[in-house]
Amino acid sequence: MKIAAEQIASVLGGEIVGNPAVEVNTLAKIEEGTEGSISFLANPKYAHHIYTTKASVVIVNKTFEPEHPVSATLIKVDEAYKAFSKLLEYYNQVKLMKSGIEQPSVISEGVEYGEDLYLGSFCYIGKNVKIGNNVKIYPNTFIGDNAQIGDNTVLFAGVRIYSETVIGQNCTLHAGVIVGSDGFGFAPNEDGTFNKVPQIGNVIIEDNVEIGAASTIDRATLGSTIIRKGVKLDNQIQIAHNVEIGENTVIASQTGVAGSTKIGKNCMIGGQVGIVGHITIGDNVRIQAQSGVTKNLENGAAVQGSPALPHSDFLKSYSYFKNFSKIVSDIDSIKKKINE
């Protein structure tokens, strides 16, 4: 898709210096710009690139005044970095601006859907599903019976939504996400075998949630597994049955949260964190990568290690651990002198 500099300036509220009709069709770093690309200059450290870049259009701050001739068309804005971020968002929206129902696909009886639905080929929509306006469902996606999907939500290719799941507005589920699969519930028998405990709850995902590729969220045994509004989950995350994650919490890749744990608002959880079940983590908690959390954490806690310690304690302990062999050697030397 090609777009002219004057259209971009209109979107960004910027002023054009150069050719308003020049067209671009891709985005690039300023040092890697090619003909037909658009870039930005926000950091003065990269200013020298603007005189050599082959990008057709460059977004710059209004305060920028070139010291040498510039071949690119400039779009002057208040803050170049923010403007470029806005352009990325606009570009993404245009790229996803699809509609229509491709074939083959299956829409079961009782399905209700709003305007501007995009349904890719080889999708299956179960009975009595309700889908809002401007929803984009990419190919090879499954949506089980009685599920609900809010306005402006995007389900990328291969997403699996089990029955009874509720997904809010403006959500994004990336490829391979599975929502609503059974929680891990088994009751042991005397002979060492296990009986499966039926998982009859559901998953509720509120508005403005993004879930990374290949992440899984289990349905509740009873009640609901709940992902509150504004939560951002990275790729390959496991959320077990009856977990609740508070508003605007962010969790990095390969983290696992065991059943019935409650996580508060505005938490930041690093990659490869393991959190045991049936505990409560307060608001504004920071958990460093590869930590193992085994007990409740109060509001504002910052922890690291496995089992997790207060972050400052972990750093002190680690400094001792690094010198452990020297410490042992010193102790042995002291013991030797005492014995003598």
From TrEMBL:
Pathway: Bacterial outer membrane biogenesis; LPS lipid A biosynthesis
InterPro entries: Hexapep (IPR001451), LpxD (IPR007691), Trimer_LpxA-like_sf (IPR011004), UDP_GlcNAc_AcTrfase_non-rep (IPR020573)
Keywords on record: Acyltransferase, Lipid A biosynthesis, Lipid biosynthesis, Lipid metabolism, Repeat, Transferase
One cellular-component annotation, GO: membrane
Highest taxon listed in the record's lineage: Bacteria
CDD domains hit by this protein: LbH_LpxD (cd03352)
Enzyme Commission code(s) on record: 2.3.1.191
Gene3D superfamilies cross-referenced by the UniProt entry: Hexapeptide repeat proteins, MurE/MurF, N-terminal domain
Keyword Lipid biosynthesis found: yes
GO molecular function: N-acyltransferase activity; UDP-3-O-[(3R)-3-hydroxyacyl]-glucosamine N-acyltransferase activity
SUPFAM superfamilies xref list: Trimeric LpxA-like enzymes
Pfam hit, one: Hexapep
Chain ranges of the UDP-3-O-[3-hydroxymyristoyl] glucosamine N-acyltransferase non-repeat region domain: 22-89
GO annotation (BP), single: lipid A biosynthetic process
Active site residues according to the UniProt entry: H241 (proton acceptor)
Catalyzed reactions per annotation: a UDP-3-O-[(3R)-3-hydroxyacyl]-alpha-D-glucosamine + a (3R)-hydroxyacyl-[ACP] = a UDP-2-N,3-O-bis[(3R)-3-hydroxyacyl]-alpha-D-glucosamine + holo-[ACP] + H(+)
Function as written in the Swiss-Prot or TrEMBL entry: Catalyzes the N-acylation of UDP-3-O-acylglucosamine using 3-hydroxyacyl-ACP as the acyl donor. Is involved in the biosynthesis of lipid A, a phosphorylated glycolipid that anchors the lipopolysaccharide to the outer membrane of the cell.
Subunit structure of this chain's protein: Homotrimer.
Similarity annotation: Belongs to the transferase hexapeptide repeat family. LpxD subfamily.
Name this protein carries in UniProt: UDP-3-O-acylglucosamine N-acyltransferase
Protein source organism: Myroides marinus
Gene: lpxD
